[in-house]
Amino acid sequence: MNPTTSLAWRILVDEPLSGPTNMARDHALAELARPGTGTLRLYRWNPATLSFGRNEPVTVGYRELLRRHPEMGAVRRPTGGRAVIHDRELTYSAVLPVRACGGLRAAYRRINEALVAGLRDLGVGAGHANANGRAVPPESGPCFMEAAEGEVVV
After folding, report:
1. 133: left (phi over 0), alpha (psi -120 to 50) or beta
2. What is the DSSP letter of 98?
């Protein structure tokens, strides 16, 4: 039996919000997480926002981008990864007890498997990025320029 199917799931769909508000909501959901319960949150961004991974340096290039686009917000995500420009997209966050999935990597894999299955059900040709045996270094540029192992690709 898939342990994630025995969770009581809550689904939240938010209106477009600022980067700091979106990250505060994600943080609050993580802080309020309870055993036996999962939360899937779907949301958008307003204004367009440049988000940085938890440990990513804010480089000169990103500062220049923000200078050229003063209407764009900026925020640091509580999670890892590289910079992402969020604009006209649907973003998700999933909060669930990691132990219910057998650990962090297994939880990541299960979430991505569910996303791929859902996209395929909608007729979108989705799959997983192949393992290339190396991590994508933060200095290699913005997120989504190169897919990391297991990420959803369309």
Report:
1. left
2. G
Would you give the DSSP letter of residue 144? T
**Is-contact 83 53, C-beta < 8 A?**
yes
pLDDT in tens, 63-99: 999 999 999 999 999 887 888 999 999 999 999 888 8
Active site residue 143: yes
Which architecture, in CATH terms, is 3-153? 2-Layer Sandwich (3.30)
What pTM was computed for the model? 0.80
Q: Residues 40, 94: contact at Cβ < 8 Å? A: yes
Catalytic residue among 10, 143, 145, 149: 143
Q: Look at residue 153 in the predicted model and tell me its pLDDT.
A: 84
- 95 strand-pairing partners: 39
Determine which helix (DSSP H) or strand (DSSP E) holds 23, and give its type and residue range: helix 19-31
